[in-house]
Amino acid sequence: MDEENQRSVPVLPWMRHPVDVTRCEQLSLRRVPFLDRRLKSALENMEISKLFPVQVALWQETIGPGNFERDLCINSPTGSGKTLAYALPIVQKLLPTSTVKCLRALVVVPTRDLALQVKQVFDAIALPLGLRVGLAVGQSSVADEISSLVYLPGEEEGVDPGFLSPFWFQSKVDILVATPGRLVDHVNLSRGFTLKHLHYLVVDEADRLLREDYQSWLPTVLKSTQSSNNDDGGSGGGDDVFQLGFPYSPWSRRTCGVERGSKPHSRLAKVVLSATLTRDPGRLVQLNLHHPLFLSAGKMRYRLPENLESFKLICERKVKPLYLVALLKSLGEEKCIVFTRSVDSTHRLCKLMNCFEDLQIDIKEYSGRQHQRVRSKTLNEFRKGQFQVLVSSDAMTRGMDVEGVRNVINYDMPKYIKTYVHRAGRTARAGQNGRCFTLMSNDEVGRFKRLMKKAEASACLEHTLPSHLIEELHSTYQSALSKLKEIILESRRKPKDKSCQ
Ligand SMILES: Nc1ncnc2c1ncn2[C@@H]1O[C@H](COP(=O)(O)OP(=O)(O)OP(=O)(O)O)[C@@H](O)[C@H]1O
Protein backbone atom coordinates (compact mmCIF):
# COMPACT_ATOMS: atom_id res chain seq x y z
CA MET A 1 0.00 0.00 0.00
CA ASP A 2 1.26 3.53 -0.68
CA GLU A 3 2.48 5.26 2.42
CA GLU A 4 -0.01 8.08 1.77
CA ASN A 5 -2.92 5.75 2.26
CA GLN A 6 -1.77 4.08 5.43
CA ARG A 7 -3.99 5.24 8.24
CA SER A 8 -1.69 5.03 11.22
CA VAL A 9 1.94 5.10 10.14
CA PRO A 10 4.09 5.21 13.29
CA VAL A 11 6.27 8.31 13.26
CA LEU A 12 9.86 8.23 14.45
CA PRO A 13 10.28 10.28 17.65
CA TRP A 14 12.73 12.74 16.08
CA MET A 15 10.19 13.50 13.34
CA ARG A 16 7.48 14.57 15.76
CA HIS A 17 8.84 18.05 16.46
CA PRO A 18 10.49 19.40 13.33
CA VAL A 19 12.36 22.67 13.10
CA ASP A 20 9.99 24.93 11.18
CA VAL A 21 11.89 26.25 8.17
CA THR A 22 9.18 28.83 7.44
CA ARG A 23 10.28 30.69 10.57
CA CYS A 24 13.56 31.57 8.84
CA GLU A 25 13.75 34.83 6.96
CA GLN A 26 15.53 35.24 3.65
CA LEU A 27 19.01 36.56 4.31
CA SER A 28 21.07 38.85 2.12
CA LEU A 29 24.50 37.44 1.28
CA ARG A 30 26.36 40.12 3.15
CA ARG A 31 24.60 39.05 6.36
CA VAL A 32 25.38 35.34 6.02
CA PRO A 33 27.91 34.59 8.74
CA PHE A 34 31.20 32.93 7.76
CA LEU A 35 30.32 32.85 4.06
CA ASP A 36 33.60 32.50 2.17
CA ARG A 37 34.24 35.60 0.09
CA ARG A 38 34.88 33.54 -3.08
CA LEU A 39 31.66 31.63 -2.53
CA LYS A 40 29.84 34.93 -2.13
CA SER A 41 31.15 36.21 -5.42
CA ALA A 42 30.30 32.91 -7.15
CA LEU A 43 26.73 33.34 -5.89
CA GLU A 44 26.66 36.94 -7.09
CA ASN A 45 27.77 35.74 -10.52
CA MET A 46 24.69 33.50 -10.47
CA GLU A 47 22.65 36.66 -9.72
CA ILE A 48 21.83 35.38 -6.27
CA SER A 49 21.68 38.17 -3.72
CA LYS A 50 20.05 36.42 -0.75
CA LEU A 51 19.55 32.98 0.68
CA PHE A 52 16.10 31.42 0.75
CA PRO A 53 14.66 30.21 4.10
CA VAL A 54 15.61 26.54 3.64
CA GLN A 55 19.13 27.63 2.69
CA VAL A 56 19.40 29.80 5.79
CA ALA A 57 18.13 26.93 7.95
CA LEU A 58 20.67 24.49 6.52
CA TRP A 59 23.49 26.98 6.78
CA GLN A 60 22.67 27.35 10.44
CA GLU A 61 22.80 23.58 10.96
CA THR A 62 26.01 23.07 9.01
CA ILE A 63 28.27 26.10 9.08
CA GLY A 64 26.47 27.84 11.93
CA PRO A 65 25.98 26.48 15.43
CA GLY A 66 24.76 23.09 14.17
CA ASN A 67 28.19 22.48 12.59
CA PHE A 68 27.06 19.34 10.73
CA GLU A 69 26.97 17.49 14.03
CA ARG A 70 23.63 15.86 13.30
CA ASP A 71 22.34 14.20 10.17
CA LEU A 72 19.72 16.37 8.53
CA CYS A 73 16.37 15.43 7.00
CA ILE A 74 14.65 18.18 5.06
CA ASN A 75 11.09 18.38 3.83
CA SER A 76 10.71 21.59 1.85
CA PRO A 77 8.45 22.48 -1.10
CA THR A 78 9.43 22.12 -4.73
CA GLY A 79 11.40 25.07 -6.04
CA SER A 80 12.35 26.29 -2.56
CA GLY A 81 16.08 26.01 -3.34
CA LYS A 82 17.09 22.73 -1.73
CA THR A 83 19.97 22.12 -4.16
CA LEU A 84 21.91 25.22 -3.12
CA ALA A 85 20.82 24.61 0.47
CA TYR A 86 23.10 21.54 0.60
CA ALA A 87 25.63 22.53 -2.08
CA LEU A 88 26.68 25.76 -0.36
CA PRO A 89 27.69 24.36 3.05
CA ILE A 90 29.36 21.34 1.47
CA VAL A 91 31.52 23.51 -0.78
CA GLN A 92 32.38 25.82 2.09
CA LYS A 93 33.28 22.84 4.30
CA LEU A 94 35.55 21.34 1.62
CA LEU A 95 37.68 24.47 1.80
CA PRO A 96 40.56 24.82 2.16
CA THR A 97 41.33 21.90 -0.05
CA SER A 98 44.45 19.83 0.54
CA THR A 99 46.94 19.18 -2.24
CA VAL A 100 45.89 15.53 -2.54
CA LYS A 101 42.44 15.34 -4.04
CA CYS A 102 40.01 12.77 -2.75
CA LEU A 103 36.32 12.21 -3.14
CA ARG A 104 34.77 13.85 -0.10
CA ALA A 105 31.17 14.58 -1.04
CA LEU A 106 28.67 12.39 -2.83
CA VAL A 107 25.22 13.44 -4.04
CA VAL A 108 22.85 10.69 -5.16
CA VAL A 109 19.82 11.57 -7.30
CA PRO A 110 17.36 9.30 -9.12
CA THR A 111 17.77 10.36 -12.76
CA ARG A 112 20.50 11.34 -15.18
CA ASP A 113 18.99 14.66 -16.21
CA LEU A 114 18.60 15.65 -12.58
CA ALA A 115 22.24 14.69 -11.92
CA LEU A 116 23.35 16.97 -14.78
CA GLN A 117 21.29 19.78 -13.30
CA VAL A 118 22.72 19.32 -9.80
CA LYS A 119 26.26 19.14 -11.20
CA GLN A 120 25.72 22.49 -12.90
CA VAL A 121 24.83 24.09 -9.57
CA PHE A 122 27.94 22.62 -7.93
CA ASP A 123 30.12 23.64 -10.88
CA ALA A 124 28.96 27.24 -10.57
CA ILE A 125 30.05 27.52 -6.95
CA ALA A 126 32.81 24.92 -6.61
CA LEU A 127 34.93 25.45 -9.74
CA PRO A 128 35.84 29.06 -8.92
CA LEU A 129 37.13 27.77 -5.60
CA GLY A 130 39.33 25.12 -7.16
CA LEU A 131 37.08 22.16 -6.31
CA ARG A 132 36.21 19.68 -9.02
CA VAL A 133 32.87 18.03 -9.55
CA GLY A 134 32.38 14.67 -11.28
CA LEU A 135 29.42 12.87 -12.75
CA ALA A 136 28.62 9.14 -12.59
CA VAL A 137 25.41 8.60 -14.51
CA GLY A 138 26.12 6.07 -17.21
CA GLN A 139 26.35 8.55 -20.07
CA SER A 140 29.45 6.69 -21.26
CA SER A 141 31.00 3.27 -20.56
CA VAL A 142 32.17 2.46 -17.03
CA ALA A 143 35.77 2.60 -18.27
CA ASP A 144 35.38 6.02 -19.92
CA GLU A 145 33.58 7.40 -16.93
CA ILE A 146 36.15 6.20 -14.41
CA SER A 147 38.91 7.88 -16.39
CA SER A 148 37.16 11.20 -15.79
CA LEU A 149 36.97 10.49 -12.06
CA VAL A 150 40.28 8.85 -11.12
CA TYR A 151 43.92 9.19 -12.19
CA LEU A 152 44.82 5.70 -13.28
CA PRO A 153 48.35 4.38 -12.76
CA GLY A 154 50.58 5.65 -15.51
CA GLU A 155 48.29 8.48 -16.43
CA GLU A 156 50.42 11.11 -14.79
CA GLU A 157 53.72 12.02 -16.36
CA GLY A 158 56.71 10.59 -14.58
CA VAL A 159 54.82 7.78 -12.91
CA ASP A 160 56.03 4.26 -13.59
CA PRO A 161 53.04 2.64 -15.30
CA GLY A 162 53.84 -0.77 -13.87
CA PHE A 163 54.01 0.40 -10.30
CA LEU A 164 50.65 0.45 -8.58
CA SER A 165 50.31 2.70 -5.63
CA PRO A 166 47.14 3.76 -3.88
CA PHE A 167 48.29 7.32 -4.38
CA TRP A 168 48.25 6.98 -8.15
CA PHE A 169 44.61 6.03 -8.07
CA GLN A 170 44.11 9.54 -6.84
CA SER A 171 40.68 11.05 -7.33
CA LYS A 172 40.25 13.76 -9.95
CA VAL A 173 37.17 15.10 -8.21
CA ASP A 174 36.21 16.37 -4.76
CA ILE A 175 32.47 16.08 -5.28
CA LEU A 176 30.56 13.43 -7.20
CA VAL A 177 26.97 13.59 -8.42
CA ALA A 178 25.67 10.14 -9.26
CA THR A 179 22.68 8.03 -10.10
CA PRO A 180 22.45 4.93 -7.91
CA GLY A 181 22.90 2.20 -10.55
CA ARG A 182 26.09 3.61 -12.05
CA LEU A 183 27.43 4.45 -8.62
CA VAL A 184 27.15 0.80 -7.62
CA ASP A 185 28.91 -0.19 -10.87
CA HIS A 186 31.88 1.97 -9.91
CA VAL A 187 31.96 0.74 -6.32
CA ASN A 188 31.95 -2.89 -7.50
CA LEU A 189 33.91 -2.72 -10.73
CA SER A 190 36.14 0.33 -11.01
CA ARG A 191 39.68 -0.02 -9.73
CA GLY A 192 40.76 3.07 -7.90
CA PHE A 193 37.24 4.29 -7.15
CA THR A 194 36.75 4.63 -3.43
CA LEU A 195 34.25 6.17 -1.05
CA LYS A 196 36.55 5.76 1.93
CA HIS A 197 37.32 9.45 2.21
CA LEU A 198 33.71 10.54 2.02
CA HIS A 199 32.65 13.19 4.53
CA TYR A 200 29.26 14.15 3.13
CA LEU A 201 26.49 12.06 1.64
CA VAL A 202 23.42 13.77 0.16
CA VAL A 203 20.35 11.76 -0.78
CA ASP A 204 18.20 14.07 -2.91
CA GLU A 205 14.63 13.08 -3.83
CA ALA A 206 15.05 10.68 -0.95
CA ASP A 207 11.58 9.14 -0.90
CA ARG A 208 12.01 8.07 -4.52
CA LEU A 209 15.53 6.73 -3.93
CA LEU A 210 14.51 4.83 -0.81
CA ARG A 211 11.43 3.35 -2.47
CA GLU A 212 13.36 1.66 -5.22
CA ASP A 213 16.22 -0.72 -4.64
CA TYR A 214 18.52 0.23 -7.56
CA GLN A 215 20.90 -2.68 -7.03
CA SER A 216 20.94 -2.18 -3.24
CA TRP A 217 22.74 1.10 -3.73
CA LEU A 218 22.33 2.34 -0.16
CA PRO A 219 23.82 -0.63 1.74
CA THR A 220 26.59 -0.74 -0.86
CA VAL A 221 27.45 2.93 -0.36
CA LEU A 222 27.23 2.78 3.42
CA LYS A 223 29.45 -0.30 3.52
CA SER A 224 32.02 1.32 1.25
CA THR A 225 32.23 4.37 3.46
CA GLN A 226 32.46 2.39 6.66
CA SER A 227 36.01 3.29 7.52
CA SER A 228 35.00 6.93 7.72
CA ASN A 229 31.61 6.26 9.20
CA ASN A 230 32.66 6.51 12.82
CA ASP A 231 32.36 9.37 15.16
CA ASP A 232 35.57 11.17 15.70
CA GLY A 233 37.18 14.27 17.01
CA GLY A 234 35.37 16.39 14.39
CA SER A 235 36.20 20.00 13.94
CA GLY A 236 34.25 21.14 16.99
CA GLY A 237 34.10 24.88 17.11
CA GLY A 238 30.36 24.91 17.68
CA ASP A 239 30.73 27.06 20.75
CA ASP A 240 32.73 29.76 18.99
CA VAL A 241 30.33 29.81 16.13
CA PHE A 242 27.42 30.09 18.49
CA GLN A 243 28.98 32.87 20.50
CA LEU A 244 29.58 34.88 17.35
CA GLY A 245 25.88 34.43 16.77
CA PHE A 246 23.55 34.63 13.81
CA PRO A 247 21.66 37.81 13.05
CA TYR A 248 18.48 35.69 12.95
CA SER A 249 18.20 33.02 15.56
CA PRO A 250 14.78 31.49 15.77
CA TRP A 251 16.07 28.59 17.81
CA SER A 252 18.08 28.24 20.90
CA ARG A 253 21.22 26.16 20.65
CA ARG A 254 20.65 22.43 20.77
CA THR A 255 23.02 20.06 22.47
CA CYS A 256 24.19 17.64 19.85
CA GLY A 257 25.22 14.62 21.88
CA VAL A 258 27.84 13.56 19.33
CA GLU A 259 30.42 11.23 20.78
CA ARG A 260 34.06 12.02 20.13
CA GLY A 261 36.67 9.46 19.30
CA SER A 262 40.21 9.48 18.06
CA LYS A 263 39.82 8.93 14.28
CA PRO A 264 41.58 11.58 12.21
CA HIS A 265 38.59 12.15 9.89
CA SER A 266 35.09 13.23 10.65
CA ARG A 267 31.89 11.16 10.76
CA LEU A 268 30.05 10.74 7.47
CA ALA A 269 27.45 13.50 7.60
CA LYS A 270 24.19 12.79 5.79
CA VAL A 271 21.69 15.20 4.30
CA VAL A 272 18.41 13.71 3.13
CA LEU A 273 15.91 15.80 1.19
CA SER A 274 12.62 15.82 -0.66
CA ALA A 275 9.55 17.96 -1.20
CA THR A 276 7.59 14.94 0.03
CA LEU A 277 9.95 13.28 2.46
CA THR A 278 8.93 9.82 3.59
CA ARG A 279 7.87 9.37 7.22
CA ASP A 280 8.10 5.60 6.94
CA PRO A 281 10.44 4.33 9.70
CA GLY A 282 11.17 1.19 7.69
CA ARG A 283 12.60 3.27 4.87
CA LEU A 284 14.38 5.89 6.95
CA VAL A 285 16.12 3.32 9.13
CA GLN A 286 18.10 2.11 6.10
CA LEU A 287 19.96 5.42 6.14
CA ASN A 288 21.48 4.68 9.54
CA LEU A 289 21.07 8.32 10.52
CA HIS A 290 23.11 9.85 13.29
CA HIS A 291 21.13 11.86 15.85
CA PRO A 292 18.88 13.13 13.04
CA LEU A 293 17.34 16.56 12.97
CA PHE A 294 14.14 17.09 10.99
CA LEU A 295 13.60 20.40 9.21
CA SER A 296 10.23 20.93 7.61
CA ALA A 297 8.31 23.76 5.96
CA GLY A 298 4.91 23.96 7.59
CA LYS A 299 2.94 21.39 9.51
CA MET A 300 1.85 19.01 6.79
CA ARG A 301 3.99 16.64 4.79
CA TYR A 302 2.65 18.00 1.52
CA ARG A 303 2.86 21.69 0.85
CA LEU A 304 2.45 23.52 -2.42
CA PRO A 305 4.57 26.52 -3.45
CA GLU A 306 3.26 29.82 -2.14
CA ASN A 307 2.71 31.41 -5.54
CA LEU A 308 1.06 28.46 -7.19
CA GLU A 309 -2.58 28.74 -8.24
CA SER A 310 -4.44 25.44 -8.72
CA PHE A 311 -7.41 25.10 -11.06
CA LYS A 312 -9.73 22.29 -12.06
CA LEU A 313 -11.06 22.12 -15.60
CA ILE A 314 -14.14 19.91 -15.93
CA CYS A 315 -14.91 18.24 -19.23
CA GLU A 316 -16.22 14.96 -20.64
CA ARG A 317 -13.59 12.25 -21.06
CA LYS A 318 -14.01 11.87 -24.81
CA VAL A 319 -13.31 15.55 -25.50
CA LYS A 320 -10.30 15.91 -23.21
CA PRO A 321 -7.81 16.43 -26.07
CA LEU A 322 -10.03 19.18 -27.45
CA TYR A 323 -10.13 20.92 -24.07
CA LEU A 324 -6.39 20.58 -23.75
CA VAL A 325 -5.86 22.27 -27.10
CA ALA A 326 -8.34 25.02 -26.18
CA LEU A 327 -6.52 25.57 -22.89
CA LEU A 328 -3.12 25.71 -24.57
CA LYS A 329 -4.46 28.21 -27.10
CA SER A 330 -5.86 30.36 -24.31
CA LEU A 331 -2.46 30.40 -22.60
CA GLY A 332 -0.83 32.05 -25.59
CA GLU A 333 2.90 31.54 -25.86
CA GLU A 334 3.57 30.54 -22.27
CA LYS A 335 5.79 27.54 -21.60
CA CYS A 336 3.76 24.53 -20.39
CA ILE A 337 4.34 20.98 -19.22
CA VAL A 338 1.49 18.53 -19.77
CA PHE A 339 1.50 15.41 -17.59
CA THR A 340 -0.15 12.14 -18.50
CA ARG A 341 -0.54 8.91 -16.54
CA SER A 342 1.92 6.73 -18.48
CA VAL A 343 4.61 6.66 -21.12
CA ASP A 344 2.12 5.23 -23.62
CA SER A 345 -0.44 7.97 -23.00
CA THR A 346 2.35 10.53 -23.35
CA HIS A 347 3.27 9.11 -26.73
CA ARG A 348 -0.35 8.87 -27.96
CA LEU A 349 -1.31 12.33 -26.76
CA CYS A 350 1.74 13.92 -28.31
CA LYS A 351 0.99 12.23 -31.63
CA LEU A 352 -2.64 13.34 -31.52
CA MET A 353 -1.71 16.93 -30.69
CA ASN A 354 0.62 17.02 -33.65
CA CYS A 355 -2.31 15.96 -35.87
CA PHE A 356 -4.26 19.13 -35.06
CA GLU A 357 -4.16 21.42 -38.04
CA ASP A 358 -3.20 25.08 -37.59
CA LEU A 359 -2.35 24.53 -33.95
CA GLN A 360 0.80 26.64 -34.19
CA ILE A 361 2.10 25.29 -30.93
CA ASP A 362 5.30 23.25 -30.94
CA ILE A 363 4.85 20.14 -28.83
CA LYS A 364 7.38 17.46 -27.92
CA GLU A 365 7.39 14.26 -25.91
CA TYR A 366 9.61 13.49 -22.89
CA SER A 367 9.27 10.08 -21.34
CA GLY A 368 10.99 6.95 -20.12
CA ARG A 369 10.29 5.12 -23.36
CA GLN A 370 12.72 7.36 -25.22
CA HIS A 371 16.46 6.90 -25.42
CA GLN A 372 18.32 8.99 -22.86
CA ARG A 373 20.07 10.95 -25.63
CA VAL A 374 16.75 11.95 -27.22
CA ARG A 375 15.31 12.87 -23.83
CA SER A 376 18.25 15.07 -22.88
CA LYS A 377 18.17 16.78 -26.29
CA THR A 378 14.44 17.48 -25.90
CA LEU A 379 14.99 18.88 -22.43
CA ASN A 380 17.78 21.16 -23.64
CA GLU A 381 15.61 22.48 -26.46
CA PHE A 382 12.76 23.08 -24.02
CA ARG A 383 15.14 24.92 -21.68
CA LYS A 384 16.31 27.12 -24.56
CA GLY A 385 12.68 27.91 -25.48
CA GLN A 386 12.90 26.19 -28.87
CA PHE A 387 9.44 24.73 -28.37
CA GLN A 388 6.62 25.60 -26.07
CA VAL A 389 4.85 22.49 -24.76
CA LEU A 390 6.45 19.41 -23.26
CA VAL A 391 4.21 16.35 -22.86
CA SER A 392 5.64 14.16 -20.15
CA SER A 393 5.14 11.10 -18.00
CA ASP A 394 5.86 11.32 -14.27
CA ALA A 395 8.99 9.29 -13.81
CA MET A 396 11.44 11.71 -15.36
CA THR A 397 10.43 15.06 -13.99
CA ARG A 398 11.29 14.91 -10.28
CA GLY A 399 13.40 17.89 -9.34
CA MET A 400 13.65 19.24 -12.89
CA ASP A 401 14.18 22.97 -12.94
CA VAL A 402 13.23 24.65 -16.22
CA GLU A 403 13.16 28.40 -16.21
CA GLY A 404 10.01 30.10 -17.43
CA VAL A 405 7.51 27.24 -17.08
CA ARG A 406 4.36 29.18 -16.26
CA ASN A 407 1.82 26.36 -16.45
CA VAL A 408 1.56 22.72 -15.55
CA ILE A 409 -1.38 20.78 -16.94
CA ASN A 410 -2.49 17.46 -15.47
CA TYR A 411 -4.06 15.89 -18.54
CA ASP A 412 -4.61 12.82 -16.38
CA MET A 413 -5.49 13.50 -12.79
CA PRO A 414 -2.74 12.19 -10.50
CA LYS A 415 -3.58 9.27 -8.24
CA TYR A 416 -1.65 10.55 -5.25
CA ILE A 417 -1.13 13.99 -3.76
CA LYS A 418 2.61 13.32 -3.81
CA THR A 419 2.43 13.10 -7.60
CA TYR A 420 0.42 16.32 -7.73
CA VAL A 421 3.04 18.10 -5.59
CA HIS A 422 5.94 17.05 -7.82
CA ARG A 423 4.12 17.76 -11.07
CA ALA A 424 2.76 21.16 -9.98
CA GLY A 425 6.19 21.98 -8.59
CA ARG A 426 7.68 22.30 -12.08
CA THR A 427 6.18 25.80 -12.01
CA ALA A 428 5.97 28.53 -9.35
CA ARG A 429 9.63 27.90 -8.50
CA ALA A 430 11.90 30.24 -6.57
CA GLY A 431 8.99 32.47 -5.59
CA GLN A 432 7.74 32.94 -9.17
CA ASN A 433 4.06 32.73 -10.08
CA GLY A 434 2.67 29.60 -11.71
CA ARG A 435 -0.55 27.76 -12.41
CA CYS A 436 -1.51 24.12 -12.31
CA PHE A 437 -4.61 23.00 -14.25
CA THR A 438 -6.12 19.56 -13.73
CA LEU A 439 -8.49 18.18 -16.35
CA MET A 440 -11.20 15.92 -14.94
CA SER A 441 -14.63 14.56 -15.66
CA ASN A 442 -17.57 15.27 -13.36
CA ASP A 443 -17.25 11.92 -11.63
CA GLU A 444 -13.62 12.65 -10.69
CA VAL A 445 -14.32 15.93 -8.89
CA GLY A 446 -14.95 14.32 -5.47
CA ARG A 447 -11.75 12.31 -5.60
CA PHE A 448 -9.77 15.38 -6.61
CA LYS A 449 -11.19 17.33 -3.69
CA ARG A 450 -10.16 14.59 -1.25
CA LEU A 451 -6.72 14.45 -2.82
CA MET A 452 -6.12 18.19 -2.47
CA LYS A 453 -7.17 18.18 1.18
CA LYS A 454 -3.98 16.30 1.95
CA ALA A 455 -1.81 19.30 1.07
CA GLU A 456 -1.21 22.64 2.70
CA ALA A 457 -2.04 25.74 0.60
CA SER A 458 -4.15 23.72 -1.82
CA ALA A 459 -7.14 25.96 -2.57
CA CYS A 460 -8.46 25.16 -6.03
CA LEU A 461 -10.80 27.18 -8.26
CA GLU A 462 -12.75 26.04 -11.29
CA HIS A 463 -11.41 27.25 -14.63
CA THR A 464 -13.75 27.64 -17.58
CA LEU A 465 -12.83 28.15 -21.22
CA PRO A 466 -14.71 30.47 -23.60
CA SER A 467 -17.39 28.36 -25.33
CA HIS A 468 -16.57 29.81 -28.77
CA LEU A 469 -13.04 28.35 -28.44
CA ILE A 470 -14.47 24.89 -27.80
CA GLU A 471 -17.03 25.20 -30.65
CA GLU A 472 -14.39 26.29 -33.14
CA LEU A 473 -12.23 23.28 -32.39
CA HIS A 474 -14.81 20.52 -32.84
CA SER A 475 -14.26 19.87 -36.55
CA THR A 476 -10.44 20.20 -36.26
CA TYR A 477 -10.57 17.65 -33.44
CA GLN A 478 -12.52 15.17 -35.59
CA SER A 479 -10.03 15.47 -38.44
CA ALA A 480 -7.11 15.12 -35.99
CA LEU A 481 -8.65 11.86 -34.72
CA SER A 482 -9.06 10.54 -38.28
CA LYS A 483 -5.51 11.54 -39.15
CA LEU A 484 -4.18 9.74 -36.08
CA LYS A 485 -6.21 6.63 -36.96
CA GLU A 486 -4.61 6.62 -40.40
CA ILE A 487 -1.12 6.97 -38.95
CA ILE A 488 -1.73 4.05 -36.57
CA LEU A 489 -3.15 1.85 -39.34
CA GLU A 490 -0.22 2.73 -41.56
CA SER A 491 2.30 1.84 -38.87
CA ARG A 492 0.53 -1.51 -38.30
CA ARG A 493 0.57 -2.27 -42.03
CA LYS A 494 4.28 -1.65 -42.42
CA PRO A 495 5.70 -4.77 -40.71
CA LYS A 496 3.10 -6.94 -42.59
CA ASP A 497 4.23 -5.50 -45.92
CA LYS A 498 7.81 -6.37 -45.03
CA SER A 499 6.99 -10.01 -44.32
CA CYS A 500 5.11 -10.29 -47.65
CA GLN A 501 8.13 -9.16 -49.64
N1 LIG B 1 18.86 32.07 -3.11
C1 LIG B 1 18.33 32.01 -4.32
N2 LIG B 1 18.02 33.15 -4.98
C2 LIG B 1 17.46 33.10 -6.23
N3 LIG B 1 17.18 31.95 -6.88
C3 LIG B 1 17.47 30.79 -6.25
C4 LIG B 1 18.07 30.76 -4.96
N4 LIG B 1 18.23 29.48 -4.60
C5 LIG B 1 17.77 28.72 -5.61
N5 LIG B 1 17.31 29.51 -6.59
C6 LIG B 1 16.69 29.05 -7.85
O1 LIG B 1 15.47 28.42 -7.49
C7 LIG B 1 15.16 27.39 -8.40
C8 LIG B 1 14.73 26.15 -7.64
O2 LIG B 1 15.81 25.62 -6.92
P1 LIG B 1 16.00 24.04 -6.70
O3 LIG B 1 15.99 23.35 -8.02
O4 LIG B 1 17.16 23.84 -5.84
O5 LIG B 1 14.65 23.70 -5.93
P2 LIG B 1 14.26 22.41 -5.11
O6 LIG B 1 13.81 22.85 -3.79
O7 LIG B 1 15.37 21.40 -5.16
O8 LIG B 1 13.01 21.86 -5.94
P3 LIG B 1 12.50 20.34 -6.23
O9 LIG B 1 11.91 19.83 -4.96
O10 LIG B 1 11.51 20.50 -7.32
O11 LIG B 1 13.72 19.56 -6.63
C9 LIG B 1 16.40 27.20 -9.26
O12 LIG B 1 16.17 27.81 -10.52
C10 LIG B 1 17.48 27.95 -8.53
O13 LIG B 1 18.44 28.50 -9.40
Plain-language structure description:
The longest helix is centred in the C-terminal third of the chain and has 34 residues, at 467-500. By secondary structure, this protein is an alpha/beta fold. The radius of gyration is 25 Å and the shape is globular. It folds into two domains: 13-296, 3-Layer(aba) Sandwich (Rossmann fold); 308-493, Rossmann fold, CATH 3.40.50. The protein is built from 16 helices and 19 strands. α3 crosses α4 (112-126). It has helices at residues 37-45, 53-62, 82-93, 112-126, 142-149, 180-189, 206-211, 217-224, 238-244, 281-284, 320-330, 343-353, 372-383, 417-424, 445-452, 467-500; strands at 19-20, 27-28, 50-51, 72-75, 105-108, 133-136, 175-178, 200-203, 269-274, 293-296, 302-303, 308-314, 335-339, 363-366, 389-392, 405-410, 434-440, 455-456, 460-462. Residues 158-164, 228-265 and 497-501 have low confidence and may be disordered. The chain has an eight-stranded parallel β-sheet with strand order 1-10-4-9-8-5-7-6, with helices on both faces. A seven-stranded parallel β-sheet has the order 14-15-13-16-17-12-19, with helices on both faces. RNA helicase.
Residue-averaged pLDDT: 86
Give helix % range: 25-40%
Which strand order spans the largest sheet, edge to edge or round the barrel? 1-10-4-9-8-5-7-6
Helix count from the secondary structure assignment: 16
Secondary-structure-derived class: alpha/beta
